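Researcher: Let's walk through a ligand-bound prediction step by step. First, I give you the protein sequence. Second, the SMILES string for NAP. Third, you return the three-dimensional complex as structure tokens. Ready?
Model: Ready.
Researcher: Here are steps one and two:
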Amino acid sequence: MARQQSAVVVGGSTGIGLAVSKALAARGETVYVTSRDKARADEAARQIGACAKGLAVDLSDPAEIGAQLSEVGPVDHLVIAAIERDENAVKSYDVTRAIRIVTLKLVGYTEVIHALVSRFTPNASIVLFGGQARARPYPGSTCVTTINGGVSAMIGTLATELAPIRVNAIHPGIVGDSAAWSGKTEVTERTAARTPTGRLVTLEDCAGAVVFLLDNRGVNGVNLAVDGGWTLL
Ligand SMILES: NC(=O)c1ccc[n+]([C@@H]2O[C@H](COP(=O)([O-])OP(=O)(O)OC[C@H]3O[C@@H](n4cnc5c(N)ncnc54)[C@H](OP(=O)(O)O)[C@@H]3O)[C@@H](O)[C@H]2O)c1
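Model: Step three, the predicted complex:
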């Protein structure tokens, strides 16, 4: 009997990562879902289904990541969606917060891949999350814009170094049904009105784009905007 495909979703306890985990589990993949907190990871695994398992992983402490992922076996699909919400403007720069978020998203994301590198199967694929703040900054997005730009830049070198494993990134615009934008009606309505599709993207849109990038063997080294064309206008 063929081995069940296996996925790791880092930052899968809420939001887009949880939606991705559910989509992968629904098609029969074993899903390792992570949170910083083991109880939250286990609760997410319970929601995802019997084929899911919770792990505690904290990307802000990269030296510990290898040990935290030690029980993971062969990996067909890796999705890294972890983020801590951040506002940090240069005029009031908080160095501690800046180091934490840059560590989480750039060093932490890379260390997850490094820790799993010997466990990727020959057709494995990886999707990392950036965001359209890379191209559409706003006051307070200094760190977020920097890290999302960093994810864009990492994709090329990772796809080259890890070949034939494919590496792509998703850059969502404002995800209207994510907790990050809950109650921020003025921004979300203004953004929807300025988006060619007339709507904000959804958790489901993002999960569908991740599945496409994980599966399509012709797509590699791509930074895919999932923003309804927001940044075109
Ligand atoms: N939502 C949007 O509109 C939007 C727009 C553009 C880009 N994005 C990107 O899309 C991705 C997912 O966003 P989201 O809104 O779905 O996020 P979210 O709901 O806030 O989920 C973040 C996930 O990251 C985990 N996490 C937080 N801190 C962590 C740490 N130090 N180490 C490891 N995991 C950690 C959280 O788990 P615990 O809290 O349980 O530990 C949770 O599973 C992010 O990379 C974000 O930058 C989102």
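Researcher: And what stands out?
Model: The mean pLDDT is 97. Residues 90 and 142 are 7 Å apart (CA to CA).
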